[in-house]
Design goal:
With about 220 residues, the protein is an alpha+beta fold. It has helices at about 35-45, 65-85, 120-125, 205; strands at about 15-20, 25-30, 60, 90-95, 95, 105-110, 130-135, 145-150, 170-175, 180-185, 190-195, 210-219. The strands form three sheets. Strands 1-2-10-7-12-6-3 form a seven-stranded antiparallel sheet, with helices on one face. It has a three-stranded antiparallel sheet with strand order 9-8-11, with no helix packed on it.
């Protein structure tokens, strides 16, 4: 599959702000990030998806290369270095403080696992293999944002997607999933998708799934 060269064109009306989820977790929010978010969603849903290499409750696809995708990944890398890292506590990577990220990877992810079919790892909050992570929420319908937790005891699987505090995790706050919003956040804090509602239990999880574009920041 090929993508239009300008498919990932950045919007001239984007708005950027640094927020603190739950009053403590620094998150960089960029609203109206893409000029053509609906076209990006249509293209992404038509990609060939495969299983993830971790406990993600869905499937992953690599985007087709194009000039605007290369430009937006570079822009996102620069935005994280200029507007996120200077405003957060020191982040360690490989035993050394990270002063800037040097590389970035991007893909698309779909959540489509029925709550009763989740493995124990899929239903619990997780930490990412990199200290900073980014998402673009590409859903016009409500499909849930991102929840952050504090682990208070050994994990206990209550079944289904965890969306509130339980005996093992305390909910700290959430990123609301506005359509065409990019969020850059600390991947080392336990978090999960805010997956709830009837859509994840029926045909909509396949026909109109939760889609995000992921950005993985690397040293």
């Amino acid at each position: 599959m090929q993508a239009d060269d300008d498919l990932f064109k950045l919007s001239s009306s984007m708005e950027m702000k640094l927020a603190k989820v739950g009053g403590i977790i620094p998150v960089l929010l960029i609203d109206n990030v893409y000029e053509r978010p609906d076209d990006i969603r249509s293209m992404a849903l038509a990609l060939p998806y495969g299983p993830p290499d971790n406990a993600y409750p869905g499937k992953i696809a690599a985007p087709p290369p194009c000039a605007s995708l290369a430009a937006v990944t570079q822009w996102t890398l620069e935005a994280a270095n200029a507007h996120y890292l200077p405003n957060v506590p020191p982040i360690q990577g490989g035993g050394q403080p990270i002063t800037q990220f040097g590389r970035i990877q991007t893909d698309f992810a779909i959540v489509d696992v029925h709550p009763v079919e989740l493995s124990s790892a899929q239903g619990l909050p997780h930490v990412d293999p990199v200290p900073v992570f980014g998402l673009v929420y590409l859903n016009r319908e409500e499909r849930g944002g991102t929840l952050f937790f504090e682990q208070t005891s050994a994990p206990v699987d209550d079944g289904g997607y965890l969306t509130n505090s339980n005996e093992s995790f305390r909910l700290l706050g959430r990123i609301e999933a506005a359509f065409n919003r990019m969020a850059i956040y600390p991947g080392f804090i336990p978090h999960s998708g805010d997956i709830s509602g009837r859509w994840i239990e029926g045909e909509e999880r396949f026909s109109n799934p939760r889609l995000t574009q992921r950005f993985i920041f690397l040293p």
